[in-house]
Design brief:
alpha+beta; 3-stranded mixed β-sheet; two-stranded antiparallel sheet; about 45% helix; secreted; EC 1.8.-.-; oxidoreductase; immunity; disulfide bond
Length: about 250
């Protein structure tokens, strides 16, 4: 005598049959639409999409300067490439353009002095205002990549917007840069940078899952894709097979 098939399996193999399952009031094609329905219909083992909870993303925060060569290299060659290769649920990225800058209050207003001069302060503020205006990371990150990979990180905003985010208004971003909002955004970035524990000693300063260590920094700069794939606890995405050869580390010190 052939072994009896479980009711759930029988219904999936022959969905046209009217198989009654206690507590299951859903057609077979909906059994894998949620964990609750799968449990009620005794179909968990047949629902690969519900087999395990989704792993949390790797959290990465980059503290950087718009004109620091090491920052530009890491953002363009490591961070952007890794972001392109991996699914969005694998990694969350926070960008904080400020780095080794300093701020002081003059006449009731914040003023900033940047490591690579006033042009860098402008670049930092443009990117802060761009992020504020765009809100969505997938909208503003390609624009920042475009700005940082060009010859000038401050003079190509409009061209980069035309290519990557034509829906954004360059005039609104310029108004932010020239007004109190841009100053407030830079002051917030200064506070975020000054609150780092341990305090940053150079840029790019990379914080992963809330931690910064020399070892993590070294690994991230040599091959960020490899590091993120190692840290991600979920099923490894296809992009993890593309880990490139490690690169030498570079920084901009105080």
């Amino acid at each position: 005598m052939a072994p009896a098939l479980p009711l759930a399996l029988l219904a999936l193999l022959a969905p046209g049959l009217a198989v009654a399952l206690p507590g299951c009031d859903y057609p077979a094609h909906l059994w894998c639409s949620s964990r609750e329905i799968a449990v009620a219909c005794q179909a968990e083992s047949r629902c690969a999409n519900l087999s395990q909870p989704r792993a949390p993303p790797v959290e990465l925060s980059l503290y950087y300067e718009s004109l620091c060569p090491a920052c530009r290299g890491f953002l363009v060659e490591q961070l952007f490439t890794t972001w392109l290769l991996l699914p969005s649920e694998t990694m969350n990225i926070t960008l904080v353009p400020y780095g080794n800058a300093q701020e002081k209050k003059v006449g009731g207003k914040w003023q900033f002095q940047c490591q690579h001069g006033s042009e860098e302060c402008l670049g930092n503020m443009i990117q802060a205002c761009l992020m504020h205006e765009a809100e969505n990371f997938t909208t503003y990150f390609p624009v920042i990549f475009c700005m940082e990979s060009g010859t000038s990180a401050t003079k190509n905003l409009e061209a980069c917007l035309q290519v990557y985010a034509p829906q954004l208004d360059a005039g609104r971003i310029a108004a932010c840069v020239q007004g109190d909002l841009g100053t407030a955004l830079m002051h917030r970035n200064a506070q975020l940078t000054e609150a780092l524990d341990p305090p940053h000693e150079y840029v790019p300063w990379i914080v992963i899952n809330g931690k910064h260590t020399d070892e993590l920094e070294e690994q991230a700069q040599r091959s960020l894709l490899r590091l993120v794939c190692q840290l991600y606890q979920g099923e490894k995405p296809e992009g993890c097979q593309s880990a490139a050869a490690p690169k030498p580390r570079a920084v901009c010190k105080h």
